[in-house]
Design a protein that fits this description.
With 267 residues, the chain is an alpha/beta fold. The chain is built from 8 helices and 7 strands, in the order βαβαβαβααβαβααβ.
């Protein structure tokens, strides 16, 4: 089990306040890591980090700002001397303020350009900048693990039928923004793995499936029927895979995409 230990290692998790982000942080703490929880809301992030334990750090970070990320790296090095793991988890998924307009606005023909550009900025540029700032430090120390969180929709097109209700009415469309950005992340992983492989920095993708989190019964049923395990994921279902990628258990693994989706993409 020492292969999975992260004792003495420092891990940064972006998007730490998200449903899966919180579970990523908890898993890293359980494996022995010092965790830097990073999210846009500084006060809430500090509160969450304090809940993880005394030796962890919460930082307000804007992943689209290189200056903000450099400040975060400096804060990390002041406290821990090194950064060994980066989990690029921060991302935007579509949410519409007016649910009555969700179907109309999410349709490709009407999807707002500014929403598409915002997703590109956070989901792709944010991962680029985080990797540039923290990954450069890892390359200079000749060790580290970067884990980019993608999605099944980075590999396959969205099945729009799962967003229909029991009467067959479309309630929402999965937009182009999420699959486009997550697909880009998978190939960005390959680029970084090839670029930094000689330095000892490993870069892999973790592609999760959908997490059950208060969706409608129709959606949960539609989604579950497409998985081989017959259910949506629990938020904790990705913790084992994350620790595997972060630790020496995956020491000979880089440039790979670890798919954990209940069998969604298997057929």
């Amino acid at each position: 089990m020492d292969l999975f230990s992260l004792k003495g290692k420092t891990a940064v998790v972006t998007g730490a306040l998200g449903l899966i982000g919180r579970k990523h942080c908890e898993a890293l703490v359980a494996a022995g890591a010092n965790v830097i929880a990073a999210d846009i809301n500084a006060e809430e992030t500090r509160t969450f980090a304090a809940q993880l334990g005394d030796n962890h750090l919460g930082l307000g970070v804007d992943v689209t700002s290189k200056e903000s990320l450099i400040d975060a790296l400096n804060a990390a090095l002041d406290k821990y001397d090194s950064v060994d793991v980066l989990v690029n988890n921060a991302a935007i998924n579509d949410k519409f303020e007016n649910p009555a307009m969700a179907k109309e606005l999410s349709a490709f023909e009407n999807y707002p350009l500014e929403a598409f550009q915002q997703s590109l900025n956070v989901n792709i540029t944010g991962v680029f900048l985080c990797s540039q700032v923290f990954g450069t430090h890892m390359a200079l120390q000749h060790s580290g693990s970067i884990i980019n969180i993608a999605s099944t929709y980075g590999m396959v097109g969205p099945d729009q039928s799962i967003y229909r209700d029991a009467h067959g009415q479309q309630t929402f469309y999965k937009s182009a923004a999420y699959p486009v950005t997550k697909g880009a992340i998978i190939n960005f992983t390959r680029f970084l793995a090839a670029y930094w492989g000689h330095t000892g920095v490993r870069v892999n993708t973790l592609s999760p499936g959908g997490v059950e989190a208060g969706q409608t019964e129709d959606f949960i049923g539609n989604y579950s029927a497409k998985t081989l395990l017959g259910r949506m994921a629990k938020a904790s279902d990705y913790q084992g895979a994350l620790i595997f990628l972060a630790s020496e258990a995956s020491a000979y693994m880089t440039g790979a995409n670890l798919v954990v989706d209940g069998g969604w993409t298997a057929i």
